[in-house]
């Protein structure tokens, strides 16, 4: 109940601060959007809006304990026209000032991504701090997910992606982040992929693109490596195998990645140096006796080899598919502006030939 009241209060404050025309409206006079889904629908675009249904809770405090949202769908020749079509059947003005999430369906992202990005760049319905994702197989199922009877499902999904980025399992890309990558001449975008199952959303992968074209998908530990290279992870777990202790689970306490481009005998080298501070979380064989110095060195070596191979594999997977979500070309620009200028127009075809070097240094926190 208290949470629902806080939500209503925050919505009211947003209306007050957004604009004079909108702030004059009462909350019940607006269709307050929380999430937007975009799917391909034959020759048209289908959108769905998850919006607050505050009027439904009037005079009934018990109603505030459950889902406060409803779904409205519509189609049109473009996203904006589909939204306009939805507005014609809405009893109140549609308000996007509280929107938290935009989800593109998998097929739409693979075939009409440029149209979606143009909407994010030019539409009045777009906001720079909204998180963008892909819904697999479609986007509408994601925003229809009730998130285990969450008060506002879109808010739960938003938090899922934000927390997932911190622990290395998901990405949380805002419209601003996405457009910064897209507008760069050589960099490529990536998006978290959401799937809905049993009334709950999950993020198990990241899709990456080459220009406007879908290029591939990172899954499992590749997602963690990708986020570590981009300095997004605050804490996570990795596992590695050792001879005496078996499989060892290690908690990442801190991590730092440094990227640069070097030129060696006319070859472009993308160097990634990663420093990790790890803590032993669990071992298969247990800890029946204190770890020896030899054990620590073995764990350290296993951790370094594991992360070195994983990061190398992840970068090369993107590069071999002509995708540069690591902004490698920007580092080339800092190193040799003239060479960058000569290669930028054909940068995608250069990626497969770049030599990737990954250096990993691990320090293990001692167990007292």
Main sheet characteristics: 10 strands, mixed
Distance between the termini: 45 Å
Beta-strand segment tally: 14
So what's the overall shape?
globular
Task: Give the structural class.
Answer: alpha/beta
In DSSP terms (H or I, runs of 4 or more residues), the helix count works out at 13
Please estimate the helix content. Answer: 25-40%
Q: Provide the low-confidence segments as ranges.
A: 1-24, 57-63
Q: What is the beta-strand fraction? A: 25-35%
Topology:
Blueprint: H1 2-18, H2 20-23, E1 30-41, E2 44-52, E3 69-76, H3 79-88, E4 93-95, E5 101-105, H4 106-111, H5 113-122, E6 131-136, H6 140-144, H7 153-166, E7 173-174, H8 175-183, E8 190-197, E9 200-210, E10 213-219, H9 221-229, E11 236-242, E12 246-264, E13 267-283, H10 293-320, H11 328-335, H12 337-343, H13 347-350, E14 355-365
Helix pairs in contact: 9-10, 11-12
TL;DR of this structure?
The chain is α/β, with parallel strands linked by helices. The protein has 13 helices and 14 strands. β11 and β12 form a beta hairpin.
């Amino acid at each position: 109940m208290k949470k629902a009241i806080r939500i209503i209060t925050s919505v009211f404050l947003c209306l007050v601060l957004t604009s004079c025309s909108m702030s004059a409206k009462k909350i019940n006079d607006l269709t307050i959007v929380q999430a937007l889904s975009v799917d391909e629908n034959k020759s048209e675009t289908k959108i769905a809006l998850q919006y607050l249904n505050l009027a439904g809770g009037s005079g009934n405090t018990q109603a505030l304990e459950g889902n406060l949202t409803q779904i409205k769908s519509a189609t049109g020749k473009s996203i904006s026209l589909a939204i306009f079509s939805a507005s014609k059947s809405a009893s109140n003005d549609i308000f996007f000032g509280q929107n938290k999430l935009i989800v593109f369906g998998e097929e739409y992202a693979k075939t009409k991504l440029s149209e979606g990005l143009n909407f994010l760049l030019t539409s009045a319905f777009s906001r720079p701090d909204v998180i963008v994702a892909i819904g697999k197989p479609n986007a509408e199922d994601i925003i229809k997910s009730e998130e285990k009877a969450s008060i506002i499902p879109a808010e739960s999904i938003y938090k899922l992606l934000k927390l997932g980025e911190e622990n290395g399992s998901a990405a949380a890309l805002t419209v601003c982040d996405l457009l910064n990558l897209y507008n760069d001449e050589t960099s490529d975008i990536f998006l978290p992929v959401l799937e809905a199952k049993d009334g709950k959303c999950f993020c198990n992968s990241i899709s990456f693109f080459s220009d406007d074209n879908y290029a591939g998908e990172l899954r499992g530990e590749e997602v963690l490596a990708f986020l570590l290279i981009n300095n997004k992870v605050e804490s996570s777990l990795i596992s590695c195998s050792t001879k005496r202790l078996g499989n060892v689970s290690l908690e990442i306490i801190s991590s730092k990645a440094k990227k640069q481009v070097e030129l060696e005998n006319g070859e472009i080298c993308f160097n990634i140096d990663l420093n990790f501070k790890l803590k032993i979380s669990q071992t298969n064989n247990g800890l029946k006796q204190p770890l020896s110095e030899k054990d620590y060195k073995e764990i350290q070596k296993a951790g370094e080899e594991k992360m070195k191979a994983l990061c190398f594999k992840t970068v090369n997977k993107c590069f071999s598919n002509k995708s540069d979500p690591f902004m490698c070309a920007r580092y080339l620009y800092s190193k040799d502006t003239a060479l960058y200028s000569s290669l930028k127009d054909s940068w995608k075809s250069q990626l497969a030939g770049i030599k990737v070097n990954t250096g990993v240094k691990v320090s293990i926190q001692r167990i007292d």
